[in-house]
Structures are given as C-alpha cells and as structure tokens.
Amino acid sequence: MASLSMHERTFTIRCRGIIMHDRKLLVVRHPGNITHAALPGGHLEWGEDVRECIRREIVEELGVEPAIGRLLYINNFTEGDLQSVEFFFEIKNGGDYVGCEERVRSHAHEIAEIRWVDGADDVKILPRQLAEDFRAGDLLHPDVRYVS
Predict the structure, then answer these.
(1) Contact 43, 13 (CB under 8 A)
(2) pLDDT band at residue 108, thresholds of 50, 70 and 90?
C-alpha cells in the first residue's frame, strides 16, 4: 500500500475542557457518534490562542463562560489520514454547568447529548488514559500528562 502524500493528510488542533462537579465529569456526545463520549471543546481557528479557543468553544457549546485553569493533558493521535493534537484544560467553575443544556447555546446543534458521569458509569470516554485517570480519581493531577 502506498503511503499518503502530505497533501492527502490533515492535521488539526483541538482544545477541550475538563469540567468536574461533585466528583462527576461533564461529557458530550456528538451527532452520529454512539461509540464514545468526548469532552466539550473544538477546533483551534487560524491565529487563535489555545486558551481563547477553549473559552470560545465552551461558550458556544455549553452557554457558560469558563474559568480556565491549568493545562492537564496533551493528546496526540493519528487515525487514518488525520492527525490530531488536543489540549485539555481544567475548567474551575464546574457547578455553573449544571443544567447547561437548558441555556441558549449558539452551537447546540454540534452536541447530541450533555451528561454528567461518575467513575462507575459504563461510558467509553476518549482518550483512554484520561478515562482511566478519571476512574482512578486522579484526573486533576498536578503534572501535565502527555497521552497518545
């Protein structure tokens, strides 16, 4: 099988929020995706700072202004001809997101479900290492973690 040329490959950067409240994690499902849940966030726009990206994406999808904390994870993965790098930031005002599905959200169409999960819930969360750390109660570790 011939390798893909650089013109056939895509590279994307995403920023996602880790939103916790009462030991639960806020996850979302995107339309058409029934296999796993993701953390809210989205694509970095050209020229945009990663902290501005996470702020914009969280407001668009959830309708709440985030109190952005530390960078917690960097995820790098390749799937087919797509390579993604994701930055996961702590969102410190988790309680403000309770009931956010009822808020006016400019990009509500991008989210099929908003759900709070705990470590015992049978929900596949990606990336896998982040999900394992959540179930182990070690999601807000003091070091930035690199996963792939």
Answers:
(1) yes
(2) confident
pLDDT tens track for 40-76: 999 999 999 999 999 999 999 999 999 999 999 999 9
Alpha carbon distances (Å) from 39 to 17, 51, 54, 77, 90: 6, 16, 11, 16, 11
- Distance (Å, whole) CA 131 – CA 137: 10
pTM of the model: 0.91
> For residue 22, is it within any domain?
yes
Tokens representing 92 are 């410190």
**Residue span of the structural domain in which 29 resides:** 9-138
Residue 131 within any structural domain of the chain = yes
Q: What is the DSSP letter of 65?
A: -
Phi and psi torsions of 100, nearest 5°: -65, -20
Give how many domains the chain has, as a whole number. Answer: 1
| CATH (domain of 80) | 3.90.79.10
Residue 4 lies in a domain: no
